[in-house]
Design goal:
Layout lengths: L19 E4 L8 H12 L4 E7 L11 H22 L5 E7 L2 H8 L5 E5 L2 E2 L6 E2 L2 H8 L4 E4 L16 E4 L4 H17 L3 E6 L8 H17 L5 E6 L4 H7 L6 E5 L13 H8 L4 E5 L12
Parallel strand pairs: 1-2, 1-4, 2-3, 4-7, 8-9, 8-11, 9-10, 11-12
Antiparallel strand pairs: 5-6, 7-12
Length: 299
């Protein structure tokens, strides 16, 4: 059952504020993930670590001088760090250059982070084939929550999330309750309504147990966040992934739980989460299993 965090407390806060991590894939004048992470770090008074990876030396063509490759990576990080600090006085940045797979770097650093921010995986519009799977691999292996920023996302409003509502789905699992807990916190912080989506098969009767569970959850949310507006949608038409996408079209943020083991070897990702992350309808926050989230004692 849901246990809601105290109002005004960040579910990812530890004794010492953990930094935000953001993946910097390449130099670009438009980088929605980087811009969102910088705003969030500034507004929450957290340090921001910029992470970039260059190919390992063993992957370079024969005869390639590796030193300049590394220097270009360092120069990219330094330029982005200086640019962000100049635009946002008070923002504290650090950089991390990794020689090898960027997924390995992000997963290795995730245990010390409050949040990882990555751009959505790119898809070839002509072939429909995805070019890489960094976002999905990071989401299913990270020890910290992962925020995935869709391609072409244009920030607006608080932390660049716009003025829409926050959406989450529930299915009775511990992961979905953890996602609901975080969604309620985010909606309250953003002062925007929370929309809870429950996809139910048409043949499934409205059992007394499910009704009681829904009432208990709504009561817990009202107690923790008295000013929060909550709507509960029971979708009997669409499959869970389609229901979440449909009801998140005009949302600021979608919060979903990760169903899987969360280990690099043999890790798994729930089919609903995987389907949503292939084409995230809006900013999408993936929450690890409850026992993997960094929390302050008592929260």
């Amino acid at each position: 059952m849901l246990t809601v965090a105290e109002p005004h407390s960040d579910p990812t806060t530890a004794h010492e504020p953990r930094p935000l991590l953001v993946a910097v894939r390449e130099a670009s004048s438009v980088n929605p993930a980087l811009e969102w992470a910088a705003r969030r770090a500034r507004d929450t008074d957290r340090a921001l670590m910029l992470v970039h990876a260059v190919p390992g030396a063993d992957l370079m063509p024969p005869g390639t001088r590796y030193g300049p490759v590394v220097e270009r990576g360092r120069a990219l990080l330094q330029a982005e760090s200086l640019r962000l600090e100049a635009r946002s006085p008070g923002l504290r940045t650090s950089t991390y250059l990794h020689c090898g797979d960027v997924v390995h770097a992000l997963l290795g650093l995730s245990a010390g982070a409050s949040l990882l921010v990555v751009g959505a995986d790119r898809m070839n519009t002509r072939t429909g084939v995805f070019q890489g799977s960094v976002a999905i691999e990071v989401a299913l292996g990270s020890a910290a929550p992962v925020l995935i920023v869709p391609l072409g996302h244009r920030g607006g409003g608080q932390n660049g999330t716009g003025a829409g509502h926050v959406v989450t789905g529930v299915d009775g699992s511990a992961e979905s309750y953890e996602a609901l807990r975080r969604a309620a916190f985010e909606a309250n912080r953003m002062r925007t309504p929370l929309r809870v989506v429950e996809a139910v098969r048409p043949s499934s009767p409205a059992t007394e147990a499910r009704t009681v569970s829904t009432s208990a959850i709504l009561s817990a949310l009202r107690t923790a966040y008295p000013a929060l507006m909550v709507s509960w949608i029971v979708d009997t038409v669409h499959a869970p992934a389609r229901a979440l996408a449909r009801h998140s079209r005009d949302a600021s943020l979608l919060v979903i739980g990760r169903h899987g083991k969360g280990a690099r070897a043999g890790m798994g990702l729930g089919s609903v989460t995987h389907a949503v992350l292939l084409r995230p309808p809006c900013l999408t926050l993936v929450i690890p299993a409850p026992n993997q989230i960094h929390r302050r004692p008592g929260v």
